[in-house]
Amino acid sequence: MMRTIFGALFLVAATPVVAQGVSLHAFECGSAPGRDVAMFSDSYGLTGVKKDFIAGCYLIRHPKGMLLWDAGMTPDMIGAAEPVMGWTLKQSIPDRLKALGLTPAQVTHVGISHHHADHSGGARDFPHAELLIGRGDWEALKAMKPDDRPAAQLAHWLTGGGKATPVAGDKDVFGDGSVVMLAMPGHTPGHTVLLVRLASGPVLLSGDQFHFRENREARGVPGFNWNRADTLASHQRFEDIAKNLKARVIIQHDPRDMAQLPAFPAALK
Ligand SMILES: [Zn+2]
Predict the structure, then answer these.
(1) What pLDDT, on the 0 to 100 scale, is given for residue 1?
(2) Cα 26 vs. chain centroid, distance in angstroms?
(3) Radius of gyration of the chain (CA)
């Protein structure tokens, strides 16, 4: 029995990762300039500091399907006279996809790094897609009131209208190791990070493991995180993976990281 288990593990580790035909498009799904970021350090490390935030969304194209990773702010914010909770949104995700000649129906999976409302607002435009979200977050969403914003934004799946897969541990989305959700609890109970192994090299999409570069360097822990010890353990896993794979790290809320990716609609391959 143990031999079989170890044999299987060895096979997984030794299998070369197929990256041909995988590409990543990045675009903004919300903007919040000049945010007071004191809340992102529970150690008084960011008092009086302001940062520009964006909500990053990513489309990963794979021969077996298409994954939208995080969905930003809700499309009903477009054209709002005032920012909503400090956020504005210029363009819906379906409108973005038009520039690629794609329709929402071609997106097979919507992966949500965690249940916070700034990561799932555009999901409703992809009702036929399979929702992938960490199991701990799925349970948290189910425990919310239906009109709580995070639950309302994913109501289609929470009420059984669409296929949802709560993910326990890691998940190899397309089965070849090229697109993998990595369990990194702490920010929320089911928080995940996405590894995308492209021909040009591996990329780590941070979820909210970190919110901006300086807080990654400081290993800062937001005061509102679900579990501090789990956050620190996940910080370590993230950095170990980044180092071992020599991965390019994209912090999703940091506009400086978005600016280093090919400008949409161009893709990283
Ligand atoms: Zn966020």
Answers:
(1) 40
(2) 12
(3) 18
Token pair recorded at residue 232: 């620190």
- Among 3.40.50.1820, 3.60.15.10, 1.10.10.200, 3.40.190.10, name the CATH number for the domain at 20-258: 3.60.15.10
Tally of CB atoms within 10 A around 14? 7
Three-state DSSP string of the chain = CHHHHHHHHHHHHHCCCCCCCCEEEEEEEEEEEEEECHHHCCCCCCCCCEEEEEEEEEEEEECCEEEEECCCCCHHHCCCCCCECCEECCCCHHHHHHCCCCCHHHCCEEEECCCCHHHCCCHHHCCCCEEEEEHHHHHHHHHCCCCCHHHHHCHHHHCCCCCEEEECCCEECCCCCCEEEEECCCCCCCCEEEEEEECCEEEEECCCCCCCHHHHHCCCCCCCCCCHHHHHHHHHHHHHHHHHHCCEEECCCCHHHHCCCCCCCCCEC
**What is the spatial distance between Cα 25 and Cα 3, in angstroms, rounded to a whole number?**
41
Q: How far is the CA of 5 from the centre of ligand 1 (A)?
A: 37
Q: Which residues of the chain have pLDDT under 70?
A: 1-19
Identify residue 118 by its one-letter amino acid code.
D
pLDDT at residue 4, as a whole number? 47
Q: Which residues surround ligand 1, an ion (CB under 5 A)?
A: 118, 208
Q: How many A from CA of 13 to the centre of ligand 1?
A: 32
pTM beyond 0.85, yes or no: yes
How far apart are the C-alpha atoms of 246 and 108, rounded to whole Å? 29
Cα 103 to averaged position of ligand 1 atoms, centre (Å):
26
| pLDDT at residue number 17 | 65
Q: What is the pLDDT of residue 20?
A: 82
Distance between Cα 175 and ligand 1 center (Å): 27
